[in-house]
């Protein structure tokens, strides 16, 4: 996301070399979804650049390649997994969690494959799983079985909250595109580990986006009081204002818990001059 074109000149200086964009983004937010790794295992030099641009406390939630999760469906992917784990080694502690996003067709009957996959993963990383089959949200037995698999592996369940998007019909091209592509699953806010991860999708309207996240403000505040360390990603259909919205979410949590550290001060977008 740190290369998102609409952010250039608004949140990120422009022009800005690709090798500096993550560093500039990291002055706005202290975490990012590593979504590009879904499409291909990154080159080691690219990962080394990500590490150079961020501090050790920066959080990358890195998605496993689709060749593992969607094409092989977690089975017979040992070679691809080893290559991926080697590639991300330079991230060190910045690899906050490895994100196993599963297709909507991955159903309760496939939980054996997930259990075996998680069991064989190295303990040097934390893992977070996102499911999209509605049975995991609507069938109590399927929910319990999945929670048991995840808890047994020390893995987190990543909710993707799209309920605000689907509250009413779309009003823009970006919202219509999101309606076609994003999963329509029930709201879930139960954390399984001390590092919960939330993905929230709002609307084009800032007012509606902020209104929709209010219950997450309460949940995240409670998690922090319990000693957990949550990571929240804020999206909108076009993501044009996502960095500013993420900071606003953080500020709303800080208003309830003033002891939470503020986010870093963003770099100026325009280059400094003497005149």
Automatic annotation (TrEMBL):
It comes from the Bacteria. It holds the Pfam family DUF72. InterPro entries: DUF72, UPF0759_sf. This is Uncharacterized protein YecE (DUF72 family). It comes from Actinoallomurus bryophytorum. The lineage of its organism: Bacteria, Bacillati, Actinomycetota, Actinomycetes, Streptosporangiales.
């Amino acid at each position: 996301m740190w290369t998102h074109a609409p952010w250039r000149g608004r949140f990120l200086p422009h022009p800005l070399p690709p090798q500096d964009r993550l560093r500039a983004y990291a002055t706005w937010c202290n975490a990012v979804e590593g979504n590009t790794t879904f499409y291909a295992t990154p080159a080691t030099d690219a990962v080394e650049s990500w590490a150079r641009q961020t501090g050790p406390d920066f959080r990358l939630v890195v998605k496993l390649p689709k060749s593992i999760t969607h094409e092989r469906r977690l089975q017979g992917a040992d070679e691809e997994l080893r290559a991926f784990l080697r590639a991300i080694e330079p991230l060190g502690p910045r690899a906050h969690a490895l994100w196993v996003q599963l297709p909507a067709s991955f159903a309760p009957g496939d939980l054996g494959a997930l259990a075996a996959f998680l069991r064989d993963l190295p303990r040097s990383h934390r893992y977070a799983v996102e499911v999209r089959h509605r049975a995991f949200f609507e069938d109590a037995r399927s929910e319990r079985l999945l929670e048991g698999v995840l808890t047994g592996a020390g893995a987190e369940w990543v909710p993707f909250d799209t309920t605000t998007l689907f509250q009413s019909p779309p009003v823009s091209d970006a919202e219509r595109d999101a309606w076609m592509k994003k999963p329509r699953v029930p709201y879930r806010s139960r954390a399984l580990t001390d590092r919960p991860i939330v993905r929230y999708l709002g609307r084009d309207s800032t007012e509606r986006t902020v209104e929709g996240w209010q219950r997450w403000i309460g949940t995240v505040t409670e998690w922090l009081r319990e000693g957990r360390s949550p990571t929240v990603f804020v999206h909108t259909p076009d993501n044009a204002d996502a960095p500013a919205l993420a900071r606003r979410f953080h500020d709303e949590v800080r208003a309830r818990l003033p002891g939470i550290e503020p986010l870093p001060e963003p770099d100026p977008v325009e280059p400094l001059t003497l005149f």
